[in-house]
């Protein structure tokens, strides 16, 4: 993708090449992930962790973290261990989500799921090791970041991972399979299962940069919008895209009898809702971006919000 977003600053026009930004950020993230796997032994554990962590993926979560750090005026490299940690938590959640006891899937990121290759016990343990390594990355492997900022990041990652976040959302999602679900419950599932980690991404990047409360509050609004929009688009792609393009089994929501936005609202209204959420999310950043003091600094987060609704996988 080579989209060029033009952001008008106060004194001159800024051209922001989102395609180039995304490529460069992905390359940096891939290199950092590769270097962050941890101990050589046990070799089998490392291999199972590596298999899923370095399997591709859009790397949206680490890039959101780096972009938020940049917006808050921080040094992006200082946020890299946290960006890696967020991708580790995300990958761990995918490994566990695919297990037979949960969504029971065979395909992830274009290849057989972790448990299909390494067996269930190893897949569970690889996920556990990625989750714990994530907290190690933030607490012990983030040189140059003040301890109180790291503590705040650990707090955000804990909230996003546990019962107030991914785990809570997953439990309600599993409980609701085959049930009639209303829009409120669906929103709860999406905000927790998907939105909570995206929120942790932008907040932790900003916290590392020492962002003021006004910016953190704007980022909470931004994160809520992109989190819900991301999952609505995920629901839409599940029915409109192929397994080859998605790299995961398409049509899964229907097979598992899950309630989705397209099921409740139809495809057209779902897309409109996602677009409206992205518009709201971007509006929250207006004081820090185009017309504000930040100049180009909000451009990556603004373009990432648009990417969420324009993506094809
Ligand atoms: C974190 C302790 C802990 C437990 C995890 C299994 C579980 C509990 C939660 C499931 C969370 C889950 C799988 C949510 C779905 C989120 C989602 C839309 C994933 C797809 O994200 P993409 O499209 O994937 O960004 P890529 O592969 O591009 O990274």
Give an overview in words.
- The protein is mainly α and 313 residues long.
- Helix 10 packs antiparallel against helix 14.
- The longest helix has 28 residues.
- It has one domain: Farnesyl Diphosphate Synthase (Orthogonal Bundle), CATH 1.10.600.
- The protein has 15 helices and four strands.
- The relative contact order is 0.14.
- About 3% of the residues have low confidence.
- Strand 3 and strand 4 form a beta hairpin.
- Strands 1-2 form a two-stranded antiparallel ribbon. A two-stranded antiparallel ribbon has the order 3-4.
- The protein is globular, with a radius of gyration of 19 Å.
- Bound molecules: geranylgeranyl diphosphate.
- Geranylgeranyl diphosphate (GRG) binds next to helix 4, helix 8, helix 9 and helix 10.
In summary, what is this structure?
The protein has 313 residues and is mainly α. It has 15 helices and 4 strands. Helix 3 runs antiparallel to helix 4 and helix 7 packs antiparallel against helix 9.
Secondary-structure topology with pairs:
Blueprint: E1 4-8, E2 13-17, H1 18-34, H2 43-53, H3 60-71, H4 80-97, E3 107-108, E4 111-112, H5 114-118, H6 120-140, H7 147-161, H8 166-176, H9 183-208, H10 213-240, H11 243-246, H12 252-255, H13 261-265, H14 267-284, H15 299-310
Antiparallel strand pairs: 1-2, 3-4
Helix pairs in contact: 2-6, 3-4, 3-9, 4-6, 4-9, 7-9, 8-9, 9-10, 10-14, 14-15
Geranylgeranyl diphosphate is lined by residues 57-58, 60, 89-90, 92-94, 96-97, 102, 109, 131, 161, 166-167, 170, 193-194, 231, 234.
């Amino acid at each position: 993708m080579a989209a060029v977003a033009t952001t008008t600053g106060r004194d001159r026009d800024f051209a922001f090449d989102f395609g180039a930004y995304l490529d460069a950020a992905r390359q940096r993230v891939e290199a950092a992930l590769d270097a962050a796997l941890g101990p050589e032994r046990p070799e089998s554990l490392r291999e199972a962790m590596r298999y899923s962590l370095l399997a591709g993926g859009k790397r949206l979560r680490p890039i959101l973290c780096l972009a938020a750090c940049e917006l808050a005026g921080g040094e992006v490299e200082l946020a890299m261990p946290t960006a890696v940690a967020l991708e580790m938590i995300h990958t761990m959640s995918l490994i566990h989500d695919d297990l037979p006891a949960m969504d029971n899937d065979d395909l992830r990121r274009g290849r057989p799921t972790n448990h299909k290759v390494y067996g269930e016990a190893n897949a569970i343990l690889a996920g556990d090791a990625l989750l714990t390594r994530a907290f190690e990355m933030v607490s012990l492997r983030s040189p140059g970041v003040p301890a109180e900022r790291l503590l705040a990041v650990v707090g955000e990652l804990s909230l996003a991972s546990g019962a107030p976040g991914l785990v809570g959302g997953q439990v309600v999602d599993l409980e609701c399979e085959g049930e009639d679900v209303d829009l409120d419950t669906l929103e709860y599932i999406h905000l927790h299962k998907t939105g909570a980690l995206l929120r942790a991404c932008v907040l932790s990047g900003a916290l590392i940069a020492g962002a003021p409360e006004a910016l953190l509050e704007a980022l909470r609004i931004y994160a809520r919008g992109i989190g819900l929009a991301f999952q609505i688009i995920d629901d839409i792609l599940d029915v409109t895209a192929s397994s080859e393009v998605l790299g995961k089994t398409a049509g899964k929501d229907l097979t598992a009898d899950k309630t989705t936005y397209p099921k409740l609202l139809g495809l057209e209204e779902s897309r409109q809702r996602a677009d409206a959420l992205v518009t709201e999310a971007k509006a929250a950043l207006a004081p820090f971006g185009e017309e504000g003091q930040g100049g180009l600094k909000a451009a990556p987060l603004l373009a990432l919000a648009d990417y969420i609704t324009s993506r094809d996988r």
